[in-house]
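Weekly structure sync, notes
Attendees: PL, DS, HV (note-taker this week)

Item 1: 3-hydroxy-3-methylglutaryl coenzyme A reductase
DS walked through the input record. Source organism listed as Mammaliicoccus sciuri. Sequence as pasted into the shared doc:
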Amino acid sequence: MKPLTKDFRHLSRPEKIKQLKDHGWIKEESEQILLNNSEIDKELLENLIENVIGQGTLPVGVLPEIIVEDKAYAVPMMVEEPSVVAAASFGSKLFNKSGGLKVVQSDNIKLGQIVFDNVTDTAQLSKDILNLESDIRQVADQVYPSILKRGGGYRKIETDEFPEEGMLSLKVHIDTRDAMGANIINTILEGIAHYLETQLSNTNILMSILSNYSTTSVIRIEGKIAISDLEKDEVSGAEVAHRMERASVLAHIDPYRAVTHNKGVMNGISSVVLASGNDTRSVEAGAHAYASKDGQYRSLTTWKYDSDNQFLVGTIELPLTLGIIGGSIDLLPISKVTLDLLGVKTAQELAHIVAAVGLAQNFSACRALVSEGIQQGHMNLHYKSLAIKIGAKGSEIQLITEALKSMDKPNLEAAQGLLYEMRNN
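Item 1 (cont.): predicted structure, written out as tokens:
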């Protein structure tokens, strides 16, 4: 695959798609899906969800290049919010200049729960269950033998006791390999639950269900950016790095800042997750729970100024349970294009990319915040939206956007006046 050209963002949509195909990033089938804006098949649509009345679409943009573990990726991002793709692209560009992002930790075990209620002695029940572990493993293997052929399946069990409430949660660790895994996990849980009901007396199983909080699937990505690349107008790179480190401290200690900080992280993460056909709600819930793992809501990323080596070092850590097969991934046209474009071989590789994009996104947002103020960038996008709203076309959009920047009252009425003058002079 050839790198995308530096003028990629200035190309028309068909030209962008053509370059992706010509440079070897996507196959012809994906090219046609993108060119035709392929919708979900009507019959499939009727069977995906209930009470179908139509379908909506979101724009899909491309982050031209992000290097993760020495491999370059072009990353699709499905999102309605302006500046998200641009911010992730800018952050990635600076990380790439310093060698790209590295995987520090990569776990891929999912969790399911079998919950016992009305337990009189949680400690004894825990002991009884753990004594049956070898049998539980056999049951799990028999219930879903096909996952064993792919190297996955049951891994281990552990218990969480809640004696005051009379509850015990049996956590089952399962490797679903490259599948999203909901059906695999729930099927194995049901098999184990049925077995335990036959082996344990006076037990009341309340539920058996996967957990979207997989602390056993934590991804940790790290990258660095040269201080010389951080300079912004009159602000030195060292000052930007110092201010970003302090902003990182704030996001760690202040939940009010941490929530907004992490929202920016999830701008990048959820955009890629959505494009890939994975479950954004699951990823969001797990990420925010992890941000609160020590009892206070904190940032998912950290930024540190390495003054000795003259780098800003960024780290992101969160649980990610993704798939490249199963669920809606195999059914939705855009998810097929996404996986074709990314060229990932495993779900874990996809998770690495997703986390890396989240870190790149967060870098750009924090840098803007501590150097120029986030409002400046947002207002530029607001002016562009005004131009589009009043019906400006082609080059008119950029001309009106630039003109609004220098006006005292750059509102809708002013934009309409500019467009009228353009078309009548």
